[in-house]
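Collaborator request, handled under Task 6.
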Amino acid sequence: MPKLTSAQLHTQVGRLQRSLKRERAKRQELERALKESGEQQTATSEILRVISSSPTDLTPVFGTIVANATRLCEAQLGNLFSYDGDAFHAVAHHNASPPFVDILRGPLHPGPETGLHQWLSVPRPFQIADMRVQIEASKLLTYRAAVRSEIAGVRISREASMAKVFATEACNAIAARAVQIFGGYGYSKEYAVERYYRDARVTTIYEGTSEIQRMVVSKNLLAGR
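Structure tokens returned to the collaborator:
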């Protein structure tokens, strides 16, 4: 075995350290995703249990929803409102102080300077529905690529790149819309949406930028694949 120079050893050690750092980051991301998935399943089970035990009274259901939503979003407090087309009405709170709850009593009309008022006043499709459509479309593209990957001898570079570019750009668009919906609170660390917005940005960069993914798709199409 040839003897390595000091510079070569230093280079290899640096490569190993970077590789280890990437693997640790991937493991941490996987652990976080698994934790969030477990927490969401637990929250869903709890909400369904409350619904089954209280089919006519929505008060405990609303309370359970806002409590679990606050916990999942890592927020300090949470409030749930109903909207009748004209005003908002508080229906549940979690960790909100009594004075704050008193402020929220009665119909609330968002002022024209708020992002919520602007969002409601613009005649366009409901943004949350559009966000959900993008999520489902991203899932289907990903599932399609995954299914084709199980077929021996079939190239999936086009399908994988299509899924990656669509899903990551949809993720950015959804996170941006969420921040817009929250208005000024979208930049506050009291709400997890600001972290989701920052985390989403890198998805169009690592493991091949969106431009690279489009090049892969174009080459496959021009080659008749």
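The cover message to the collaborator said: "The chain is about 65% helix and 5% strand. The first strand starts at residue 78 and ends at 83. Please let us know whether this matches your experimental observations."
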